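anyone seen this seq b4? input:
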Amino acid sequence: MADLKLCHIYKKFGNVMAVSDFNIDVADGEFISFLGPSGCGKTTILRMIAGFEKPTEGTVTIGGTEVYNGSKGVFLAPEKRSIGMVFQSYAVWPHMNVADNVGYPLKVRGIPKDERLQRVMRMLELVHMREYADRFPNQLSGGQQQRVALARALVTQTGLLLLDEPLSNLDAKLRESMRFEISAIQKELGITVIYVTHDQSEAMTMSDRIVVMSMGKMQQIGRPYDVYTNPANQMVADFIGLVNFIPATAKGDRIFMQGQESLSFPNPKQLSGEAVLAVRPENISIARTGGMIKGIVNHCFYMGDSVDYRIKVKEQIIRVIWKGAAYGIFRDGETVYLDFDNVMSFAKEG
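predicted toks r here
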């Protein structure tokens, strides 16, 4: 069992509250991503789970065992928590070959040589590095070194794996490939994973649930689809995916777009006064006639698989994304009409 429970976790550094009243229950075998901007507290939480930082308040429970409870004086050292961890910096030892790097945690635990070698080769096969067993880190690419670090974290057969932005030093194509590698390994082994990232694409593609954080607080937790399509607030909508924010005014059961007072949308949240309408670029269609509002094509960017249109509507630029085949249909300076679908609304922040 490698379920995880954090209950009323606080962490202060001097007068700075880095994490505030954080609570989560993670099921055995679940893949959870902590997503948010730099300084939001996600790595601090990971370090408290690992035991490298002590919470100011709260409890940490792994596999049914309390590993930290400040009020009771309970603190289990990192090496006794039965976890694996992979850092952003790989941290593979340059003087050891691949097999010795992966096998070192087993050697420290006194595992016999024959069993150690068998488990090392199994892990190297799992990360597609078996044929590199005798090579040294300076003979490997960044992606290969990251796989060695992953195999070393997995070889002890711990049920909980902590990953702290492990792909951020890789190039874009390799990063995408490694996302699927890690996800496949997690599913095959059935381990619990806590994954820290600021890359929303990583979180969306790999996770069972995403925790979106800002300023030390959980803003939303949910399945990737739910967080994307039904963000809890403007911060989440902005951080997950692309979005247009349009000033609006809420009155009664309708929200009126600023500068387009004849155009309104339902007000299911019963907002009042200044508000913000939010619509994803892929949920806007363009036509030469009809449509909700009129605009001018300001510019279009060809992205290969998509076309990124920037449409000027009065004083605001609205972003519209279509499939790549739509390139050249609308020209800069052309008058077009926009229709919106799946419009979200939020109270104006600040």
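Residues 256 and 264 are 4 Å apart (CA to CA). Helices lie at 42-50, 98-108, 113-126, 142-154, 172-189, 200-206, 224-229, 234-239. kinda curious what u guys think
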